[in-house]
Give the backbone structure.
Amino acid sequence: MIQFMKKIFGSSKAKEKKEKVLYITAHPNNQDTSYSLAVGAEFIESYLQSHPSDEVVHLDLYNAIIPDIDSDVFNGWRKLADGVDLTHAEKAKVERLNELVEQFIAADKYVFVNPTWNFSYPPVLKAYIDAICVAGKTFKYVPDKGPVGLLDLKKAVHIQASGSLLSPGSEMESFEMGHRHLDVIMKFLGVPNFEAIFVEGMGAASDQTQVIKDKAIRKARELAKTF
């Protein structure tokens, strides 16, 4: 009977859509010394255990080419619109930025991982955000409505570590600029599901660092199962 039903309806696994997860890390160190990367690694491990057919692509921003939006880029975009040849530098930067946004669009889910530096994230993550916010690709302008995000079928999670307590509800919540900005960007791009894991307080309670880390890992592993 089971075999007969499989022939008619197909197996449940055959019906499952293979999804792509873009694992975006912005930390110069490795998971042995980074709280955010350690928790991120546990998240991905748990995710793959629960979603074995899915694909995880790791984009390590500290070991990738992430062009700044500079004069070469602006000149390159203008020349493309005018049908003029680009210089080598302009062409290389414009093509790389296009690769980054196309990779972002192709993913179904996003995992952002970073430390907190001076209440925000490392500069390379801001450069990456600039690369993926592209009119006509990840958002569009609608007359009488303004910008509308185009990634309404995606979901994302943000894993952020900080020495201070900065998560919503903490006394220093208003100082936190990294997750809040990324939350705005996800809303801007239309991502409807954006969750957060805060690994925080290691500086304020140095004797509790392992407890804090273990708690975040448990949350990460549980969230990954349903992500």
Observations:
- The radius of gyration is 20 Å.
- The domain at 18-226 is CATH 3.40.50.360 (Rossmann fold).
